[in-house]
Amino acid sequence: MANTVLRGRAIKVGDNISTDLIIPGRFAHLRSNLPELAKHVLEDTLPTFTSELSEGDFLVAGENFGLGSSREHAAIVIKMSGVGAILAKSVAHIFFRNAINHGLPVLLCDTDRISGGNELEIDLTDFSIINLTSGVRLSCNEISPLMSAILEEGGLIPYIRKHRDFEL
Amino acid sequence: MGKTLAEKILSDKSHGDAKAGDIVVADVDLVFVQDITGPLAIKQFKEIGFGSIAKPQRAIIFLDHAAPSPHRQLSNDHRFLRTFAKESGCFLYEVGSGVCHQLVAENVANPGDMIVGSDSHTVTAGALGAFATGMGSSDAAVALALGKTWLRVPESLLIILDGAFPKGVDAKDLILYLIGQIGAQGATHKALEFSGQALACLSMSQRLTIANMAVDAGAQVGLFPSDDVTSEFLVSQSRGDSYKPLHADTDAEYQQAIHLNLARIEPMVSLPHSVDNAVPVSEAKGVEIQQVFMGTCTNGRLEDLAIAAGILQGRKRHPDTRLLIAPASRQVLAQAIEKGYISSLVESGGVILPPGCAACLGLHQGVLGDGEACLSTANRNFKGRMGNPEAMIYLASPATAAASAIAGEITDPREAM
Ligand code: SF4
Question: Among B49, B388, B6, which residue's Cα sits nearest to residue B225?
């Protein structure tokens, strides 16, 4: 991974942001046109998301982020829109894998301690977060070594291209 | 220490001693994708550069989500998938065959199998004792290339079912009730394992409904042991010799045990916009409904249509309530025609849609208008799910859906039976 220390602003969303809210089924015809699809990310819940976001900002959510369908496009459009990492109290199982599989870091922490607009610094070597605005340091759940390795290679496809198999 | 069903299957598939919390690489018996996740999976597969699928005879493409296609772009996605199926030698189920999970249950899944599907409701096949789990397109692509996947062996929640359903209460009410109790993330990353004396009277159709929604409690898989019901189902699908005994060890360790008495469950309704917002039907009674949608991988089977036809026979849908019915597969449709259910449903004012996902995901065939409410037998009522974030979706059983179609408002099915 090129950059292990990430810096950006927090953009907050609530609990239970489903894949239907991230990228609704009604846009399924755009799934083979990802740049076009990415224009609609989160529009039903946070219409200002794409205009508000600067490259490298963090999407900071509550509980059960990404619940619902297995559509990997949900993780892809978040990454394409410029999000540097997802922070949440908890993340749905399939979405978690999908994000890591696209090299998009997911950190589980107490996001109540982050407000919208806070400046954050994330160190991916030890998965620590400093809220530069409030000075609060947050600890996160670690991910498995295999997931870390996938993240380090920038995602699952580059990982398999390089290793030709899973290495435990 | 004994093993849970999840630990047993994953030990077998990883050729080792898999315990909850371990990371394993497991052999995959079936990889499938559908028309919405498939194009990306195939592109990712090509990107890996392995050239050919590890086990083409164990790979399937389903055209079910946008079937028939409502959009030029989706038609082109279908063309792309058909071409890939021809080139790679994997099987393709054409438009009109049915929903992927129903077809997997009817034709492919066996006890002890490891199944990776690029669709979250892949968990449906857990009813047959398969470790069936939904993954994204990249994981499916890698499973196609390697014939393997990686997993963290889940901790299991044991759901012990006792008693029998009262009249008007069914598997859908049970799973909505359970998700209402444990929450939409109550089983995140975990396995649900069903057991108890009531299993013997749960049909395969009911088990498929229950396993289907394991993911809507966050679970990685929802597993049933194999028994006479499993064996009879496999025989009825001409796969009797695929039967394998599969039971958890009596000293297996579970993270939690939850007892449910079927006799105490009432007809349930999940209110918008979350599946775990489940209440007894009395609390939702009287909500006006502009559309009833009956079908999907949750409740589009023959038994479901039989219940609906039984209630609707000789009656009419409410004039202000559209009634859409999508049988889960061609086999279901053919049998429902033969049994006369389809004529009852049509005579009551129902519209029969082609076997497939139909209105479930908001792409076509029943998109809701602003401010409209739909009572659906599907598994998800998230905002925007049926194509319109300004619409409301209520989830319930086929019996509740049929009774509500007649009344034009959410109705207790026990009053209509
Ligand atoms: S019927 Fe609905 S839930 Fe089932 S696979 Fe199709 S879209 Fe998904």
Answer: B6
Read off the DSSP letter of residue B366: S
Structural domains of chain B in order of their starting residue, each with its CATH number:
5-261 (3.30.499.10), 269-416 (3.30.499.10)
Angle at B92 between CA B90 and CA B98, to 5 degrees: 145
Nearest to A64 by CA among B276, B238, B398: B276
**Token digits for B24?**
């394993």
pLDDT tens-digit map of A58-108? 999 999 999 999 999 999 999 999 999 999 999 999 999 999 999 999 999
Taking alpha carbons only, the member of A10, A159, A1 closest to residue A83 is A10
Check A94 against B134: CB less than 8 A apart: yes
**Torsion sign, CA atoms B150, B156, B162, B165:** negative
- Predicted local confidence at residue A2, as pLDDT: 52
Q: Could you tell me the domains of chain A?
A: 5-163 (3.20.19.10)
Q: Which of B179, B382, B392 best tests the A interface by mutation, with the highest count of A CBs <10 A?
A: B382
Say which of A20, A28, A97 has its CB closest to residue B385: A20
* pTM score, whole prediction: 0.98
The tokens for B351 are 């519209």
Exposure b/e, B304-340, CB count within 10 A at least 16 = b = bbbbbbebbeebebbeebbbbbbbbbbbbbebbeeee
The CA B244 to ligand 1 mean position distance, Å, reads 28
8 A C-beta contact, residue B111 and residue A72: no
- Residues 5 through 34 of chain B touching chain A, CB cutoff 8 Å: 23-25
Q: Residue B413 to residues B160, B311, B375: CA-CA distances in angstroms?
A: 26, 9, 13
